[in-house]
From TrEMBL:
Species this chain originates from: Acidovorax soli
Matching CDD domains: Xcc1710_like
Record InterPro entries: MTH938-like_sf, NDUFAF3/AAMDC
Pfam families the UniProt entry points to: DUF498
Protein name: Xcc1710-like domain-containing protein
Gene3D superfamilies per UniProt: MTH938-like
Amino acid sequence: MKFQPDKANVQTVTGYGPGWIGVDGEKITHSVIVGSDGLRRAWPCARYEDLTAEHFAELAQLETELVIFGSGQRNRFPPPAWLQPLMARRLGLETMDTAAACRTYNILAGEGRNVVAALLLEAAS
């Protein structure tokens, strides 16, 4: 018995590796915000250390039910103060490494959830 459709009707991550991510077959080499509603835009941060509270305030402005934060090659949590704008709007934020965030985004988007992934892509080492 098949539970998953052959082709999702939403934007999906089609591949990833050190320093790149594929979204619907397009190779992206910079940090990016993708959404199940078709949102795709650059996220101006090249390293975890470049992130600021403003990056998370930007995420709080999105019309979504959940934000998945892909924190790069390893799981790192943003300071709680940065999450205040998200909490004020009652938006959930899940943090994981970027590879896990890609997989989780695909699952939730494929289920029809209104989800956004903010994916930090660090330069390949």
